C-alpha cells in the first residue's frame, strides 16, 4: 500500500514539488508582512493598517515560525513523495488559514484593537507547545530510523510513546493556540475541522498503512497506546 488517506507514502524524490511548495509558502509570508506594513492597500477599500496592528505582527511571527518548521519538515524530515496535487492543495489551505487568521486577529471585522491579556499568553504557549510536539516527535523518529538496526521496525519511543499520532495532536494544539490569539470565534472552526479530519480520515488511513507494513509490532503498539490525545483518546 503506497496510498493512504489521499497521501502518497512511496519513498520517491519530489524535489521540484518541495521547492515549489516552500516558495509559494514564502510568498504567503511576504504577503502577510505586506498586510501589516503602513502602506495604502485596496483589498477591502482603501486602508493603510489593520485596526489591531500589534496583534497582527504577533500573528505574522506565528506564520514565520510555521514557515521555518515547514522547511524543516520538507527538506529534512519527509522522505515520502510529495505530489503536485498535495503541494498545491496545501498551499491554498495555508493561504486561507495564515492570511485568514492574520486578518481576523488584526481586527478586520471588529474594527478595533484588543489589549493583550492572559488569553494571548495561553494561546502563544499552546502554539509553541504544539509546534514542539509536532516537530520534535518527528525529529526523534528521524534519528531513530537513521540507525540501521531499526530498519523494518515500528517506532514507538520518544513522544510517540504517549500517543500513536502525537504529531497530529501537536497540530491540534498549535492551531487551537493560534485561533485563541486572533480573539475571533470563527477561527476556532479550524482546529475543530483539523481534529475531525485526523480522527475520521488521516489516522484510519495511516493506521491501515502501518499495520500492513509492521504487522504484529504495530498491532501491539496500537493496543497499548492512546491514538491521538495522551492519556485520553
Mean pLDDT: 93
The major pleated sheet works out as: 2 strands, antiparallel
Number of strands: 2
**Order of helix and strand elements from N to C terminus:** EEHHHHHHH
Low-pLDDT sequence parts:
none
> What is the number of helical segments per DSSP (H or I, 4+ residues)?
7
Strand content: under 5%
Indicate the radius of gyration in whole angstroms: 19 Å
Give the CA-CA distance, first to last residue.
26 Å
Amount of helix:
55-70%
How many individual domains? 2
> Which class of secondary structure composition applies to the elements?
mainly alpha
What form results from the Cα inertia axes? globular
Oligomer: single chain
Report strand order across the widest sheet.
1-2
Please provide a written account of the structure.
This protein is an all-alpha fold and 233 residues long. It folds into 2 domains: 12-115, no CATH class; 117-233, no CATH class. Helix content is 64%, strand content 2%. It is built from 7 helices and 2 strands. It has helices at 15-36, 53-77, 84-105, 118-145, 166-182, 189-214, 216-224; strands spanning 3-4, 7-8. A two-stranded antiparallel sheet has the order 1-2. Strand 1 and strand 2 (7-8) form a beta hairpin. The mean pLDDT is 93.
